[in-house]
Amino acid sequence: MIKKAEGILSKIFGYHSFRPLQKEVIENIISKNDTLVIMPTGGGKSLTYQIPALIFDGITVVVSPLISLMKDQVEQLSELGVNALFLNSSLSQLDYQFNVEQVRSGNVKLLYVAPETLMLERTLELLEKLDVDCITIDEAHCISEWGHDFRPVYREIATLKPRFPNAVFMALTATATPQVQNDIIENLKFKKSNRFVASFNRDNLFLQVVEKTFPVKQTLNFLEKHKNQSGIIYCFSRKQVDDLTAELDEHGYSVKPYHAGLSDKERMQNQEKFIKDDISIIVATVAFGMGINKPNVRFVIHYDLPKNIESYYQEIGRAGRDGLRADCLLLFGYGDISKINYFIDQKEGREKLVAKQHLDKLIRYAETYACRRIPLLTYFGEDYYQENCGICDNCNKGVQTLDNISVEAQKFMSCVKRTGEIFGANHIVDVLLGSKNQKVIEKKHDEISTYGIGKEHSREVWLSISRQLIVKGLLTKDFEFGSLKITDRGYEVLKGGVDVKGKIDTETKFESKSITTLNYDKKLFGVLQQARKNIADNSGLPPYAIFPDKTLIEMAAYYPTTDKEMINIHGVGDAKLQKYGAKFILFISNYCNKFNIPVSSKNILSNRNRNGSPTKKLKYEIIGKEYNSGKSVDSILSEYNLKLDTLIAHLSKYGNLVSPINPKGLLNRLECDEKTQKQVYKSFQKLGAELMRPVYDDLKETVSYIDLRILRLNYLFQNKN
Is residue 137 predicted with pLDDT exceeding 90? Predict the structure, then answer.
């Protein structure tokens, strides 16, 4: 059966290999084992039920709360020659009845329904007369009361199992903590052994957090680097959405708003324009779900702070679904924390406590100076061991020079102590800044020694320092009341025995990088984009339903001019080749003739390996090989425009995956003396050499990360020999 699945993957969908876990999930579903699938947005969840649906004799029912997503999926499947329909409240009575008759005839392979539609008795009676092979529950986190988007109607789906005894049940979601996963399994009575959890890491998303200072100007600076690209900007309120939309429109950007205050018609029109690339940017409220599957969203900006990590992860998940690079910017302002806290304070009991904890974890994510993926993936129960992800702002800065904030830490914690360890960060900052507000005067905190001793920094800086002290374990925070208390480690700092390193200022820099490492003809890509748009408009479809950007990029890299070459392009299956192959071959041939490009040298068949993916030397392979061949460190740094820590990261990867690296050429770059080097090696022996942070802490932050990485290379090389 898996051979049949591989054939469908290639012939229908035009993909040449499965993504991680897809094959295992499909095998499990075909074997009729109820299955829970946790897979990130853009990880290929849809294929795990669409391919079994085309193997099963009967119908597959897909439950989804997102009406626009159903329409989108059905359009894309229809373009692939797959019989798919949906039933939901957006259909007219005539269209609804027509779709029902199509389902009743037995010709439909996939039926998408809203949960409310599924639970109607008339829908269930219709399905009971059919051979239902699979019931797929998309957005399955809605089942769990622990999830961020609980919907009671989802809990009722479990009651359908006795009515469809021959159907395999499948639950899918991109956002579920281990607690939510267990709740889904318990509700649906699944076996825990049939849980498949892919990595939550979206390694094509560049994650960046900057301090929110002049948000309109910061947004315009960011957009300047992403001209003519498709993106979403999330705001806290409807008014903010409307104001920012007007501002961007004035600056010549193609933009529309999207929030619950608009009429259904206007909201739908704006979404359609965005999906069809008639506009580039949608500005939306964080509280309103978009429910779109547009693969070429190249950026997501959080103009305001989302309420928790799950919402943030889901919203950035709308970027880069095609697997190409996308940029995610979070403007982090302390005023936004107050707004969210105001709404949290309207809640009561456990609900309020949980909301506070969720917000605190998001703030810790925003304020970390380590790799952004560590707190993000840890939240979802995943251990992330990679030392440098290479695609977040903190890792891209390389080894950051941290400030010595020992004096600030002592001032802050001294103030916490002198006010009785019963107040939150805002009150402590008021005292440090010498505020004359009512609470400070009433408590007589204007009379204590720490009153007004912190005027050298702004409120935002002091609040940032307070959170860094919590992250470092120098302070603890009571989530119910917000009061701060000093830990044993914090008292060591107060006594002056330990230095504290941290960040005081935040720089705002926006990078503009290529969305792919593939070397492609950008002019031809533009020609193919325009051709795709014209075909899509004439067919009333979104452009990505014709071909995604990834497909056009491969066409612009390999210049396919025959059916045999075109069928090997990513995303070109039999149906797409038959429908659009000749048109795109003509565009490419005309372009090659016009610019005298010899197409034979770019033959796609000679550029693919046995698994069907393009063969290309990765940067770490090129650099590692050149270093091992004897090329000097200086010449490599100069030729590839690298920082030293980036070069070391490439060499470490090459040494782990390809061939041992002799770091002799790097040892003269060490700043620490021989005695310290011996201490480092002892720390490696004690703690292992996989992660740098434990070793860095063990050495009391006295050895730079660059020195640690060079010494680790040497330590591993000596051990291998």
Answer: yes
Residue 42: count other Cβ atoms within 10 Å of its Cβ.
23
Distance CA 312, CA 208 (A): 13
CA distances from 206 to 111, 287, 317 (A): 35, 23, 12
Which residue type sits at 686? K
Cα dihedral sign, 136-140-144-149: negative
Average pLDDT over residues 199-213: 89
The residue among 342, 336, 369 whose CA lies nearest residue 355 is 342
Cα 636 from Cα 620, distance rounded (Å): 12
* Mean of pLDDT values over 462-466: 87
- Chain centroid, CA 655 distance in Å: 29
Distance from chain centroid for Cα 542 = 23
| Beta strand pairing call for 281-285 and 84-87 | unpaired
224 phi/psi in degrees, rounded to 5 = -60, -30
208 and 327 Cβ atoms separated by less than 8 Å: yes
pLDDT tens digits along 382-418: 877 676 788 998 888 755 567 889 999 999 999 999 9
Please tell me the predicted confidence (pLDDT) of residue 129: 93
Residue 165 CB coordination number (10 Å): 7
Contacts 24+ apart (CB under 8 A), 236-245: 236/285, 236/286, 236/303, 236/304, 236/305, 236/336, 236/339, 237/285, 237/304, 238/285, 240/303, 240/304, 241/283, 241/284, 241/285, 244/216, 244/219, 244/283, 244/303, 245/283
DSSP label of 277: T
In sign, the C-alpha dihedral spanning 350, 356, 359, 360 is negative
Contacts of 44 (CB under 8 A, 6+ apart): 18, 19, 22
pTM, full prediction: 0.70
Percent of the chain exceeding pLDDT 90 equals: 45
Mean pLDDT over the full length of the chain: 86
Backbone angles phi, psi at 237, to 5 degrees: -125, 160
Task: Please report, for residues 285, 352, 366, 411, the alpha-carbon distance to residue 345 in angstroms, rounded to integers and kept in the order given.
Answer: 21, 7, 22, 29
The helix (H) or strand (E) run that includes residue 110 is strand 110-113
Name the DSSP class of 554.
H
| 8 A C-beta contact, residue 393 and residue 209 | yes
Q: Give the side-chain half-sphere CA count within 13 A for 701.
A: 12
C-alpha closest to that of 182 among 383, 381, 384: 381
For residue 720, what are its two tokens? 């291998």
The amino acid present at 501, given as its one-letter code, is: K
Rounded Cα distance, 240 and 287, in Å: 13
Q: Are 172 and 138 in contact (CB under 8 A)?
A: yes
Residue entry with tokens 């063969």: 615
CA nearest to 712, candidates 686, 681, 675, 671: 681
Query: 10 Å Cβ neighbour count for 452?
Result: 13
Handedness of CA 234, 239, 244, 246 (dihedral sign): positive
pLDDT surpassing 90 at residue 524: yes
Distance between CA atoms of residues 319 and 231, nearest Å: 8
Residues 231 and 248: their CA atoms lie apart, in Å, by: 13
Cα angle value 677/402/375 (rounded, 5°): 95
Distance, in Å, from the CA atom of 673 to the CA atom of 576, rounded to the nearest integer, reads: 64
**Structure-token pair, residue 325:** 């690079």
Are residues 259 and 271 in contact, defined by beta-carbon separation less than 8 angstroms? no
